[in-house]
Amino acid sequence: MVVYADILIVLNLIVNYFLLLAASGLLHRKVRTLRIVLAALAGAVSALYIYLPQVPVFIEFIYKTVICMLMTLIAFGIKSLKLYIKSASVLLSVTCGYAGIMIAIWHILKPDGMIINNSVVYFNISPTVLVISTVAAYLLFSLLIKIFGKEARYAAECEITLTAGEKTANLRAIVDTGNSVSDIFGKSEIIIADKSAVNALFDADDTEKQTRYRAIPFNTVSGYSLLEGYRCDSGTVKNGDKTLILQKPVIAASNTPLSDGFNAIVNPKILE
Fold it and tell me: Which residues are registered as beta bridge partners of 216?
């Protein structure tokens, strides 16, 4: 069977695009469409090694790993080494899962017009079928986004800016139901952050710090506890194209360090 390079690249561009979307969903990370397209294109071009003779499995795995790391770099960037490795691992797992399903279909059903070489999948289809399949996949994905859009928003990340006096702190936060802490008086949004962020706004010897102090009760699996919180003058939350203004939010120091490149957690209700 003749393998056409243009169809090969377009097919893998589409597949990689949805694999990257799946990875970003599993990682709860919002990524710009342009970055996903560029990463998918890089992966699609790498599929040209289907023309090479069959290589050993470990060489295929190394090649796939390098390509996944490149696609991760393009799509997600490097905000922290730990987060980058985690993102690359998730994308590699999703890619290997897809390849495994395709190989199983190839061996069991043996469909006509399907070729797999060096773990690269090729379908000998006409441009018309390709366009129709692409539109159908897009419509299906759009439907899933509408159905699960609310839940996906709760797993998003956002940028937060807090102001107290003349000081400002910029936080990278994840919107997570893990932060269900709320003001018992219902007047202030509460943002849990690393202690370093609190110290950036309030000095230890700042007398005004005591006037802003708020003890925030919360429950954990180990029992009842308190968070040390401090009232800020104002704040903004940027979630995608949406910017929310916070009136006198409270920043609470987390009892444990946050990880994965985030230094704050916010309650999903803030976005409502």
Answer: 227
